[in-house]
Amino acid sequence: MAEHPILVTGATGKSGRRVVSRLRAAGHPVRAAARSGEHPFDWTDASTWGAALEGIRAAYVVQLDGTNLVRPFVAQARKHGVRRIVLASGRGIDDPGYVRDRTGMRDGIADSEAAVRESGLEWTISRPGWFAQNFSEGFFADAVAAGELRLPAGDGAATFVDAEDIAEVVAAALTEDGHAGQTYELSGPSAVSLAEAVEAISAAASREIRYVPLSIEDYVAELVDQGLPRAEAAIFADVIEPLREGRDAHVSDGVQRALGRSPRSFAEFVKTATWPGKFG
């Protein structure tokens, strides 16, 4: 498959752009597909799928949340001669009690996993937990930049996984043999509470960042005051529930199995990330 480009969907996202970077650094041709960027690709516009898949033999599939589009995409991929699929999924997908799912998102992701398993292709599934990069470029980043992280997470902890580890696992599954039929649950090496996380970031950024635990009611009320519809605010609160309940505090062995090494620690991530105020 070396002469064929590797398709990376979601190529501008946290994992996608890192996968693109790793593949290119290793000399692999890459088709970086996203709604905006090098190669136009839109999950909601099936007319863009064919051009993305033309000449491809391996693909990293980062699905669009809240949709059931992976199954028809995989069927089209087979027709184009794709042989290998690596699917971005998530921790807890096989646990109905993991999180309250008001939107049906979990069912959609579970169907995506079933689609790749039933495809007849070489498949690998990546199931990362909470990204460490949520603090630097994702869900928590604006609050960290403002100096106060306010969440209904109590003293819950998670084994935050570095997106660089996720990308390395995905790149290996796309380019190496031995990963077909594997589901890799990905985590960091130890659980870190939000209080511990912001303490480490404060030291690295040389500025005070506080974690303020809120009740669910106060968190929802704050989001509503910021202009979010109450139903949407409740969904955000649901997302935090596994963190609050400690459901992501366990260590998974996916990085070790895929790469033969331990995952990067949260402390290592903090040292290499860019933080507001770090150089000010």
Instruction: Tell me the series of helices and strands, N- to C-terminal.
Output: EHEEHEHEHEHHEEHEEHEHHHH
Radius of gyration: 19 Å
DSSP helix fraction: 25-40%
Within the largest sheet, what's the order of strands?
Answer: 3-2-1-4-5-6-9
CATH superfamily of the domain at 6-129 and 162-186 and 251-260: NAD(P)-binding Rossmann-like Domain
Poorly predicted runs of 5 or more residues: none
Q: Identify the CATH architecture of the domain at 6-129 and 162-186 and 251-260.
A: 3-Layer(aba) Sandwich
How far is it from the N-terminal to the C-terminal residue, by CA?
47 Å
Task: Indicate the mean pLDDT.
Answer: 94
Shape: globular
CATH class of the domain at 6-129 and 162-186 and 251-260: Alpha Beta
Question: Top keywords for this entry?
Answer:
280 residues; 40% helix; globular; 7-stranded parallel sheet; alpha/beta; 11 strands; Rossmann fold
Write the layout of secondary structure elements.
Layout: E1 6-9, H1 16-25, E2 30-34, E3 39-40, H2 49-53, E4 58-62, H3 70-79, E5 84-88, H4 105-117, E6 122-128, H5 134-137, H6 141-146, E7 148-151, E8 157-158, H7 163-175, E9 182-186, E10 192-193, H8 194-205, E11 210-213, H9 216-225, H10 230-244, H11 254-259, H12 266-272
Parallel strand pairs: 1-2, 1-4, 2-3, 4-5, 5-6, 6-9, 7-11
Antiparallel strand pairs: 8-10
Helix pairs in contact: 1-7, 8-12, 9-10
